[in-house]
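Dear support,

We are seeing what looks like truncated structure output for some complexes. This example has four components. We would appreciate it if you could run it in full and send us the complete token output so we can diff it against ours.
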Amino acid sequence: METIGEGDDVLLYLDKKRTYLVRVEAGKQFHTHKGYVELGDLIGKPYGSPLVSSLAVRFHALKPLVRDRILKTDRRTQILYEKDIGYLMLQLGVGSGNRVVEAGTGSGALTIALADAVRPDGMVYSYEINPSFQNVASGNVERAGLMQYVELKEGDVTTGIDEEDVDAVVLDMATPWKVVDHAHAALTGGGVFVSFSPTIEQVMKTVSAIKGLPFVDVETVELILRKITVAENKTRPQTQMLGHSGYITTARKVLGLTNLAL
Amino acid sequence: METIGEGDDVLLYLDKKRTYLVRVEAGKQFHTHKGYVELGDLIGKPYGSPLVSSLAVRFHALKPLVRDRILKTDRRTQILYEKDIGYLMLQLGVGSGNRVVEAGTGSGALTIALADAVRPDGMVYSYEINPSFQNVASGNVERAGLMQYVELKEGDVTTGIDEEDVDAVVLDMATPWKVVDHAHAALTGGGVFVSFSPTIEQVMKTVSAIKGLPFVDVETVELILRKITVAENKTRPQTQMLGHSGYITTARKVLGLTNLAL
Amino acid sequence: METIGEGDDVLLYLDKKRTYLVRVEAGKQFHTHKGYVELGDLIGKPYGSPLVSSLAVRFHALKPLVRDRILKTDRRTQILYEKDIGYLMLQLGVGSGNRVVEAGTGSGALTIALADAVRPDGMVYSYEINPSFQNVASGNVERAGLMQYVELKEGDVTTGIDEEDVDAVVLDMATPWKVVDHAHAALTGGGVFVSFSPTIEQVMKTVSAIKGLPFVDVETVELILRKITVAENKTRPQTQMLGHSGYITTARKVLGLTNLAL
Amino acid sequence: METIGEGDDVLLYLDKKRTYLVRVEAGKQFHTHKGYVELGDLIGKPYGSPLVSSLAVRFHALKPLVRDRILKTDRRTQILYEKDIGYLMLQLGVGSGNRVVEAGTGSGALTIALADAVRPDGMVYSYEINPSFQNVASGNVERAGLMQYVELKEGDVTTGIDEEDVDAVVLDMATPWKVVDHAHAALTGGGVFVSFSPTIEQVMKTVSAIKGLPFVDVETVELILRKITVAENKTRPQTQMLGHSGYITTARKVLGLTNLAL
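Here is the complete output from our reference environment:
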């Protein structure tokens, strides 16, 4: 069983709504409204171990998953949810060794998922036009220990993409339709294009741009996630629900002269 | 740009509903209702290349993605859809180097996704009680070139799981509640349990079993996928829709003596 | 308990998918693949009574509800479903004594619901541009015994609406945005406008037209209906589902010179 | 055009989220955070007229619809939403002249919808076990001017229903399964049973009770309402959404000795 070491991140779990991503250091205390915990006590213990606070409340130290890191990125810039990222990742088909272009980086939530998927021998090229987001993203990717698989680039992909022959391009930005031609140029034959957009007007413009280029397998979907309360005589979908985050449009580049979006 | 070689699989794409996963061999013809194509003509060409049939219909040769292989597994045994697999994968948090237990194997759709995620140095232990399914799965995993990351096991996980200290256990079987204790025993501290079930009674029993053991972060969700038609003056969610596939229940093992499902 | 008389309609119910709306006449046989029944046998019996066929299969004779008549209208012209009609009716706020304009009539499904709601002293003015639909609708309304509350009009509402001071206008037609100004003119102060449209482009144009006129309380919604299988150890939403029928846009006319859509 | 009179209710509309159901009286002021309005100024004016506040903010005086009165009932006791009430009403098939049993009354939201549907010559018998709710309901029904069509009864329907030969029974209460047999006894042949329940356990028990009695046309559904923002380059389903209110189960009574739920 893997043990926790000095300098490792753990997810301190109290309950569904109260989790904390913290770095374990000898002598370091972490304060919560349920008392403080001695993080150094975790050193040498296995993941999953309990940690009791000064107020006798029990936390558990989980090994952070990619999804935990996604949730802990800065939510101000974050519009991608787990439901969308899981689907995006499967559609992108990204795995070890792949090279992927992302724009914009935002807080780095999707960057982390992509980097984890392409390791140990692939690369994520992530563009962001807003320098302040880049700092946030850099911190998040660094903390996840994935920086060696990521190149954070400040730049505007509506004017072009530097990379060539990439396996996938994924867009989460305001004007994805302005990047469709650059994405086509950057993709390898059969490479996957994916765009995430909140509004239907963005989707319409993006699909229109796709249909003007040699792409096939064009599809737009929306995912709705319902959380279910499961407890005796109380089982039901929850009352509060995220109504909409965005639409996901996918396509695959083919080689040839004419457009034939199908 | 990567080129297609003798013995490679390609996805021949005609349109959204007509795609064919075929092995490229010199001299081999593949017949469709749109005429036949000479698969050998693809050798040496880049992925994404067009291939014109004897009836002058153009196909494109795409590099098969994991999601293509999932779609091409035997649908008789298949109840997991892309929407569910994408979410399952992110919840499981499986990446390169992880060890995962799966039951049942079914046609191997999820096995392929798991194997692709754990490569190049992880392992999937996949249990199946029905030998006839195992043959189907074996063919699908072999064809995907992922057999070195998979151990297909004939066995009944309701009586126990052989592995220890695994990072994740994922169940897609009729009686998941009978496996919750074995899954807990097999998991490493902080390891992830995920179960997929079509009916709410299965979910109720499984969650009840989870709540009797040291698990935290218990959640049940359902994913609804809407396909959107995007075309000028015709933009709308599609009329036909998959109403339900199943519920996804997740939990994480913690260490300690008492139950404290939160 | 009300009894069935000569000339009454009954809904012969075999199972969920096999129901027949028939007129009871002495000596008349009704043939089904489960044998024939003698409709005259129902005369003098209460609604809900069983009727056994020549092949010893039991049917039941239900009193037709508005929703039964909606289901039995010609489905070729029918895009309104029960989920939509129920919501439309509540939004329209139509009750006894109200005067309502409808366009287009289609097969008369909504016409029947409206006529049933305004009786015994209201009126439905229903416009249809296609004479062949009008015949279908006329038959359906007549059969429901509601013709005295309906005026079927052949005409194009994009050129104007004859009525004034009506309580509500409801549109189920291809170009509702061309009727918004005529609807505003026809409505009484505070009167309700409702439009049903399958595509988002229709909605965009219609809402844009509404925002240019003195309307308040503008809202667009979509209703999704899930059918649930409820049976021991089989309880779950059904696999097949209607993905989309249309969007419902509502607004209320106010008096004054300027636009102020809120 | 109908004009507003002394003692009439109007819905003062400011915007979607700020509406006020008030009674018009000469000399009466109504105070809001946008200044006060002189309600007496509305006397003699048509519905839909503007009313300007002391702070120069314009309200509009709408004629209250049934749906407005539903929204303005006491929300503490209210779990029925417009989406559910519209569907319930169509399923119940209630119209002028019908006799309907309801339990429980709650705040009277559904009572008002039922009473409006059965007028001018039908009757709603509404049971409530909690006397404090009855006072709330009484005020709401009275204010809607519908009391002559409603008999509010304090009582426990799990012990029996007084009425016979009613056209419909509708339940919105914690233990509907305990009322199924009484509902069957109270219904006329072919009469409609409808139950609304938040949890799936309630639905399971209720459907099980239905299947033990002569009912046909048994169905359980759930309605999901999505509100759509429609504005240039902002068109999308709204972020916040009601995830679940309840399931609706319907059935129709037939005559005969045996159970045959189909």
